[in-house]
């Protein structure tokens, strides 16, 4: 279900709208697919953006695959963060040039409001956010994720990103 939009952006009576960013530059096909399968056990159905491949701009390591997914959950943010950390630990997550699995809580909208990760506007995450939640905003009155993504593209900031094929049979 590539590029499906979440039907509602605002908080819903059945839970929070959550967007996660999964990244890996070490055996990404194995680690990302394992993580998505684990997340689907807790949060199905997941909506998946098109995964992108881009350079490691922080450590100069191998290219990263970044994959954005969204779901609705009744879990509070802290419980969700604990689950995400457990997934990273299960993949023996290390900080540095080689990252088996990094999972960030990019966007969390519940009845208390919207909270966004400090990196949610980076092009490698913004591409997926614009696919899944095009009209949502990182801050009230700010540009939507789709508007921000179009601006990044217009300035050439998306040139280093390309769709990741990863042996998944994606066209």
What does this structure look like?
By secondary structure, this protein is α+β, with helices and mostly antiparallel strands. The chain is built from four helices and seven strands, in the order E-H-E-E-E-H-E-E-H-H-E. It has a domain at 16-118: 2-Layer Sandwich (Alpha-Beta Plaits), CATH 3.30.70. Strands 1, 2, 3, 4, 5, 6 and 7 form a seven-stranded antiparallel beta sheet that branches. The model is unreliable at 1-11 (pLDDT under 50).
**What portion of the residues fall into strands of 2 or more residues?**
15-25%
Q: What's the shape?
A: globular
Helix content: 25-40%
Largest sheet: 7 strands, antiparallel
CATH fold group of one domain: Alpha-Beta Plaits
Q: Nearest-angstrom radius of gyration?
A: 15 Å
CATH homologous superfamily assignment of one domain: 7,8-Dihydro-6-hydroxymethylpterin-pyrophosphokinase HPPK
List segments where confidence is low: pLDDT < 50 over at least 5 consecutive residues: 1-11
In CATH's first tier, which class of one domain applies? Alpha Beta
Mean pLDDT: 87
The number of strands is 7
Number of helices: 4
